[in-house]
Amino acid sequence: MADNNGGANLAWFLVGGALGATAALLLAPQTGTETREYLRRRTEDGRGRMADSGREALQRGREYYDRGKEIADDAADLFEKGKEALSRVKTAADASRGSADTSEVPS
C-alpha cells in the first residue's frame, strides 16, 4: 500500500516549479520587456486561434444539426407513407375477407 504523503509531493512540485521559473528568467535570451511583449503576442495569437476554432466548431455543429434534421424529417415522411400503405393493405384485406365470407360455397 502506498504512503499518503500528498502534502510533501505538492511542496516538492511547487519548489520545482519555482526553480524552473527562476532558471527560465535568468537564462532567457531576451530582456524582460521583450519577453513580456513576446508572451503578450503569443497569448493574443492563442486567443485568436481558440476563437477561430470555436467558430468553426459551432458552424460544423449547426451543419450537422441541419443535416440530422433533414434525415429525421425524411424518416418521418417515410414512416407516414408506410402507415398509409399498411392502412390500404388492411382495408383491402378486410374487403377481400368480407367478400369471401359473404359468398356461399355450394355444398
Write the layout of secondary structure elements.
Blueprint: H1 6-27, H2 32-102
Descriptive report:
With 107 residues, the protein is mainly alpha-helical. The chain contains two helices and no strands. The chain has helices at residues 6-27, 32-102.
**Coarse morphology:** elongated
Q: What's the gyration radius in Å?
A: 37 Å
How much of the sequence lies in strands comes to: under 5%
Low-confidence residue ranges: none
Element order, helices and strands? HH
From the N-terminal CA to the C-terminal CA, the straight-line distance is 93 Å
Query: Pairing-aware structural class of the strands and helices?
Result: mainly alpha
Helix content: over 70%
Query: Helical element count?
Result: 2
Quaternary assembly: single chain
- The number of strands is 0
